[in-house]
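Batch manifest line 191
LIGAND: S-adenosylmethionine
JOB: complex structure
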Amino acid sequence: MSHPDAEKWNGRYHQDGFHWLQNKPRSLLQMWLPRLPHNGLAFDAASGVGVNGLVLAQHGLRVVALDISEVGLRLARQLFTQEGLEVDTAVYDLARPWFPAHSFDVIINFRFLERATFPAYRRALKPGGWLIFETFVKTDAAVEYPDHFLEAGELHEAFADFVVHFSGREEVVRNGRVYKTTDQLVAQKLL
Ligand SMILES: C[S@@+](CC[C@H](N)C(=O)[O-])C[C@H]1O[C@@H](n2cnc3c(N)ncnc32)[C@H](O)[C@@H]1O
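JOB STATUS: finished
ARTIFACT:
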């Protein structure tokens, strides 16, 4: 039995994988990269084709990439190999997350929302570990899949006891028009 998200995203990456591989790493990640540790273990959640995880590996971290799409992960492995770097990948359903406590130095979560990950990320980060999270937020406009969108302030609230280095909002522009809006958080679990 296949997973509906896997079918959807495998189809997208089959068709548009090349396009996804051309994407630059998210600017929030590029901005905060210099503050991240140069060694340890990073987790790229819902990694897709791995362009964000790749910069963490180039920075010196070992990267674990999890995603529901095996096609996306195959492209991620090819991308890392081309760059002479290693990545551990696994097909994983982040709707039912469980990770051992205090495992990761860095977790990145871009353009994906599954609220069950909030407590799982809190547990999985080492004390002092970094969370970089950016995903779509509800604005005035009606959205097709409301569960896939943060409520205003929700992300900040979920990690309010972390040291919050940055909490912001960014409009995503496509073809000259605001297409969606993201909320962004950069925070560190307390030591
Ligand atoms: C918009 S893409 C974001 C990819 C990447 N993080 C980025 O910023 O480019 C959403 C990703 O979430 C993955 N995904 C969707 N449902 C998932 C689930 N239940 N568990 C794990 N990954 C999932 C998709 O396969 C896809 O790679």
